[in-house]
């Protein structure tokens, strides 16, 4: 057993030994070398190499002779999904055989790395491959590689952070081998689904990768920037495996034309940028690796200097936490406690409220989102899984996993495609170690809440003791100060008179003495008291002055935001007052009193022209109070106003939303005036009836609704039959209402044929009226061909009909 | 040998709203349309709001072209497509990239609810955002597939084509729907070739080998 463990760790020992002295060299491309030596396009590289073992052995040996410390097995596509594309099922056999060939080629001196590539599918929540299925696919391959006798593992060319996580979790769950992870970033510096190198590094190194870096997709020049960007945050060695330039087609073959000198000169720059492990990807050859090694020789690389890092990530964003930066708001809204509407939604398996809460909190300035889905009687684990998947699509903010249940936290940490924060770990014996173990496995940060099995601490001194004990235990699991955020435990000042004072002392002690980051749940302080916003805001400013880093609160509270931003400025955390100035210069200005000098009837006109639906009724009342006759108000003010809007629209000085806003304002005014307007109603009845419908088979009705609204504005009696209306129904209604004209709408060529059918049927049934048609695919010629008038939009429909009447 | 078609499934697509395109779709004309700040604020709020209701998902499927004969393009294991205009677009290509995307059901529910609640202005803005976002997501799929193809010495051409363009009839929608397996996005197709939910689209483009003069796309 001892010998077996020693064997397993041979690779780790060797690598750690080399990295202390010099750069570790990986080999170069295998695929493009196999192609050069006769492998045809479109075949399975693993199967072909096993049928041509000498070719593969020669390639491995050439890299070994060129100076590579590590030879990668030819198992890049050796997972169940990739082999399955070629109808191959024997994952274990193929991987073991290829490990055997690699070992046979280079002997015991060389480190043999089991190479693990992508399945080619995106993993939940980004794609349709379930996360656990992905983990199992990688476990199957990794077990075979380990059984075959590889010394280390290399997970490479990952374009999806979640697939990289799945592969790394699989590696960690089946072996203790040194594991390198490299991802492919495009020339804009992102992976396929938008993960930047720093975010990827923090996520993957937290999850336990022994080295992280980039390979493929770009040549060495772009990679220099990625390595430079990652270096300040790297706790692990950085890897660069660039292509030999970008691919080109020569004589029907794909070639990479960066020569060995140029490649190695970039290699030197990668080294100076901070790469500790170098190798080559597509298009590189043993000569590239030989020259690379020769260029760098035995230069000692910059070892990772970062020992601890306080940062949380989503799949595409990193939030750094430190005492010198502005206070971070953790949005508290996604929590069903006391929110019956959210409880109802979660019970029904719906998530639209959560979606809106996430978006609103992000818009209002939250930088992290607390997520709690605890509702009695629901499957909290499954609900948390679904919520995380949803939130990944809705927001880029990192999540704070908030649950009292260990199994919920475990599921969330496993699935979450970033580095999460756990809210929270208490010092309760039965849970604390379990959660520490989980946080350690998944690389999460956690909030330490100083509560024990005996309950709440009532004095500052008790808090200090509990916090000290929690930190000591966390260190045993490998955590550092920067992985821990202390909750200063805010109690209600209505119940505990020292509640505020204890929190302030705790924050000061944590930030000054221990250099620990702190957090509070703000609203607890004011529980049971009136005017809570004032108390909360005042308390927030005081805690910020003591060094608070994060607050769990409602970013939609204006008091909270205003105080936070002001205090950040006063504490020197808002350089050049940029945030303060931006925030407060955007506050709404006090309405000018000039508007009071405008005549009330003019205000009605302005409201219609400006689409002011909110104030139109008040303005109408004001105008009526001046004694103006309602009929006159309509004829002289409102109708000209809406006609003017139509003119503006025709001149393109107004665009569609403005036209509709005005039309809706007009409609609202009509509705209000109806009871006052008997005479006007009689006038209305003189205007003819119009039937309007979207034809059978067509589900688009926005355009038709706009036309109907405008026609009503102009006083027509509009009968709107809706969308997807059968021909027979249109004709039946026409026989009943005897309209002046029938308006038909269609969006597609497949449905516009219904227009002709309706007209023919109407004529056959003796309906004597005009027809007008419109819609995306309809034009004047088509309209003429079926005996109808044509309108390109709502305003032109009004004109055509008014012309017909006159 | 490799199976005939390769998939890229994007469970969600995160893109910034194409503001200019949304405004243009709504009829905004630079330098001509005059908009007061309160109206602009309202429209921008609706655009931002719509983002929380839009669930962009997409699919890309590459299928090798077996041969082109007359007006027919024969595909590996996927039958044939017929269109001379499409053949022109695919000149020099050896694969067709089929793309499908949807903005999901939620945004349609909200638009319908706005229509029922008579908030036509908001419905119109949300409708335009959904249309432009789903269209932009096709560009996103194309770009991401280009990133993958770059290492195989291939790229997706810039132009794309959809059913109903030129002589490529709308009836092809059904075949493309099946090639893409659009059900995986939660999309259905009606007898009249409408994709449901409404803001769902398909398109196709060509895949070429890089030549000496090609720049990376």
What structural keywords apply?
heterodimer, A: 806 residues, alpha/beta, TIM Barrel, Methyltransferase, Methionine Synthase (B12-binding Domains), Chain A, domain 1, 4 domains, eight-stranded parallel sheet, eight-stranded parallel barrel, B: 217 residues, alpha+beta, NADH Oxidase, seven-stranded antiparallel sheet, 6 helices, 9 strands, 36% helix
Task: Spell out the blueprint of helices and strands.
The complex is a heterodimer of chains A (806) and B (217).
Chain A lengths: L1 H7 L1 H12 L2 E2 L5 H6 L8 H7 L1 H14 L3 E3 L7 H5 L6 H16 L4 E6 L14 H18 L3 E7 L2 H14 L3 E6 L13 H10 L4 E5 L4 H11 L7 E4 L5 E4 L2 E4 L3 H14 L3 E2 L7 H11 L14 E3 L4 E3 L7 E4 L8 H8 L4 H12 L4 E4 L8 H15 L4 E4 L3 H10 L5 E6 L2 H14 L2 E5 L10 H17 L7 E4 L11 H16 L2 E5 L10 H15 L3 E4 L4 H13 L7 H8 L14 H11 L5 H10 L4 H21 L5 H18 L4 H9 L2 E6 L7 H12 L3 E4 L6 H11 L3 E5 L3 H16 L5 E5 L5 H6 L3 E2 L3 H12 L1
Parallel strand pairs in A: 1-10, 2-3, 3-4, 4-5, 5-6, 6-7, 7-10, 13-14, 13-20, 14-15, 15-16, 16-17, 17-18, 18-19, 19-20, 21-22, 21-23, 23-24, 24-25
Antiparallel strand pairs in A: 8-9, 11-12
Chain B lengths: L5 E5 L8 H7 L11 H15 L5 E13 L2 E4 L4 E3 L1 H6 L5 E8 L2 H12 L3 H31 L3 E3 L16 H8 L7 E2 L5 E2 L3 E10 L8
Antiparallel strand pairs in B: 1-2, 2-3, 2-5, 3-4, 5-9, 6-9, 7-8
Helix pairs in contact in B: 1-5, 2-5, 4-5
């Amino acid at each position: 057993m001892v010998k077996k463990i020693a064997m397993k760790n041979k690779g780790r020992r060797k690598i750690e030994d080399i990295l202390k002295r010099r750069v570790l060299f990986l080999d170069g491309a295998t695929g493009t070398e196999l192609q050069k030596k006769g492998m045809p396009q479109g075949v399975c590289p693993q199967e072909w190499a096993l049928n041509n073992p000498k070719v593969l052995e020669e390639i491995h040996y050439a890299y070994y002779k060129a100076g590579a410390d590590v030879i990668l097995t030819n198992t890049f596509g050796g997972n169940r999904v990739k082999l399955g594309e070629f109808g191959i099922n024997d994952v274990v056999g193929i991987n073991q055989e290829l490990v055997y060939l690699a070992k046979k080629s280079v002997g015991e001196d060389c480190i043999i790395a089991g190479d693990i590539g992508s399945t080619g599918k995106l993993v939940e929540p980004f794609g349709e491959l379930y996360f656990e299925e992905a983990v199992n696919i990688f476990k199957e391959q990794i077990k075979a590689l380990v059984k075959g006798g590889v010394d280390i593992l290399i997970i490479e060319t990952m374009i999806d952070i979640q697939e990289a996580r799945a592969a790394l979790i699989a590696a960690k769950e089946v072996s203790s081998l040194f594991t390198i992870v490299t991802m492919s970033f495009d020339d804009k510096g992102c992976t396929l689904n938008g993960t930047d190198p720093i975010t990827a590094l923090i996520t993957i190194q937290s999850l336990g990768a022994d080295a992280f870096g980039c390979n493929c997709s770009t040549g060495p020049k772009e990679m220099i920037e990625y390595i430079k960007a990652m270096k300040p945050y790297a706790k692990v060695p950085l890897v660069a495996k660039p292509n030999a330039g970008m691919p080109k087609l020569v004589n029907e073959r794909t070639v990479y034309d960066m020569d060995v000198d140029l490649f190695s000169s970039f290699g030197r720059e990668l080294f100076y940028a901070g790469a500790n492990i170098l190798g080559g990807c597509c298009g590189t050859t043993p000569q590239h690796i030989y020259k690379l090694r020769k260029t760098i020789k035995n230069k000692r690389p910059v070892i990772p200097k970062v020992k601890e890092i306080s940062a949380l990530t989503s799949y595409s964003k990193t939030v750094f936490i430190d005492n010198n930066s502005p206070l971070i708001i953790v949005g508290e809204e996604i929590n069903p406690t006391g929110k019956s509407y959210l409880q109802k939604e979660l019970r029904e398996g719906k998530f639209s409220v959560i979606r809106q809460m996430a978006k609103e909190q992000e818009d209002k300035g939250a930088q992290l989102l607390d997520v709690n889905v605890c509702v009695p009687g629901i499957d909290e684990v499954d609900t948390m899984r679904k919520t995380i998947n949803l939130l990944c699509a809705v927001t880029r903010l990192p999540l704070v996993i908030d649950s009292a249940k260990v199994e919920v936290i475990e599921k969330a940490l496993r699935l979450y495609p970033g580095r999460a924060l756990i809210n929270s770990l208490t010092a309760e014996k039965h849970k604390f170690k379990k959660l520490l173990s989980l946080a350690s496995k998944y690389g999460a940060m956690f909030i330490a809440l100083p509560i024990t099995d005996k309950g709440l601490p009532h004095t500052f001194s008790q808090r200090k003791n509990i916090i000290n004990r929690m930190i000591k235990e966390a260190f045993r699991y490998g955590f550092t100060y920067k992985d821990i955020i202390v909750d200063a435990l805010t109690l209600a000042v209505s119940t505990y008179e020292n509640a505020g004072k204890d929190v302030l002392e705790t924050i000061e002690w944590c930030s000054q003495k221990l250099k620990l980051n702190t957090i509070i749940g703000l609203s607890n302080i004011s529980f049971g008291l009136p005017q809570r916003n004032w108390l909360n805001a005042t308390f927030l400013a005081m805690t910020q002055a003591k060094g608070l880093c994060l607050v769990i609160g409602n970013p939609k509270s204006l008091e909270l935001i205003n105080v936070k931003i002001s205090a950040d400025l006063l504490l020197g955390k808002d350089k050049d007052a940029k945030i303060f100035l931006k925030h407060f210069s955007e506050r709404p200005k006090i309405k000018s009193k000039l508007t009071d000098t405008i005549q009330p009837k003019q205000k009605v006109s302005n409201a219609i022209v400006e689409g002011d639906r909110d104030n139109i009724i008040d303005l109408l009342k004001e105008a009526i109070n001046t004694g103006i006759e309602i009929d006159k108000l309509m004829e002289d003010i409102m109708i000209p106003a809406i006609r003017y809007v139509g003119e503006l629209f025709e001149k393109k000085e107004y665009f569609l939303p403005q036209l509709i806003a005005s039309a809706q304002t007009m409609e609202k005014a009509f509705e209000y005036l109806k009871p006052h307007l008997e005479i006007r109603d009689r006038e209305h009845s003189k205007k003819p009836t119009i039937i309007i419908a979207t034809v059978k088979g067509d589900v688009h009705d926005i355009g038709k609704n706009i036309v109907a609204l405008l026609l009503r504005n102009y006083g027509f009696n509009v009968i709107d039959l809706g969308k997807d209306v059968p021909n027979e129904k249109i004709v039946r209604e026409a026989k009943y209402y005897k309209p002046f004209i029938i308006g038909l709408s269609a969006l597609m060529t497949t449905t516009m044929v219904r227009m002709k059918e309706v007209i023919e049927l109407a004529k056959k049934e003796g309906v004597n009226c005009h027809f007008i048609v419109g819609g995306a695919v309809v034009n004047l010629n088509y309209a003429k061909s079926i005996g109808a008038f044509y309108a390109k939009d709502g305003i032109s429909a009004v004109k055509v009909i008014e012309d017909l009447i006159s | 040998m490799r199976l005939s078609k390769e998939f890229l499934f994007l469970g969600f697509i995160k893109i910034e709203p194409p503001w200019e395109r949304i405004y243009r779709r709504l009829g905004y004309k630079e330098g001509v349309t005059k908009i007061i700040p309160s109206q602009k604020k309202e429209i921008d709020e609706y655009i931002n709001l719509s983002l929380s209701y839009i669930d962009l998902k997409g699919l890309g499927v590459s299928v090798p072209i077996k041969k082109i004969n007359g007006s027919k393009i024969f595909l590996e294991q996927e039958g044939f497509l017929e269109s001379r205009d499409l053949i022109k677009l695919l000149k020099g290509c050896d694969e067709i990239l089929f793309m499908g995307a949807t903005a999901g059901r939620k945004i349609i529910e909200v638009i319908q609810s706005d229509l029922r609640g008579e908030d036509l202005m908001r419905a119109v803005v949300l409708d335009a955002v959904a249309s432009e976002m789903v269209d932009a997501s096709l560009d996103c799929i194309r770009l991401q597939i280009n990133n993958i193809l770059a290492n195989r010495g291939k790229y997706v051409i810039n132009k794309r084509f959809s059913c109903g363009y030129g002589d490529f009839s709308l009836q092809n929608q059904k075949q493309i729907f099946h090639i893409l397996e659009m059900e995986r996005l939660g999309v259905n197709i009606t007898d009249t070739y409408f994709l449901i939910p409404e803001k769902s689209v398909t398109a196709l483009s060509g895949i070429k080998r890089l030549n000496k003069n090609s720049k990376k796309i």
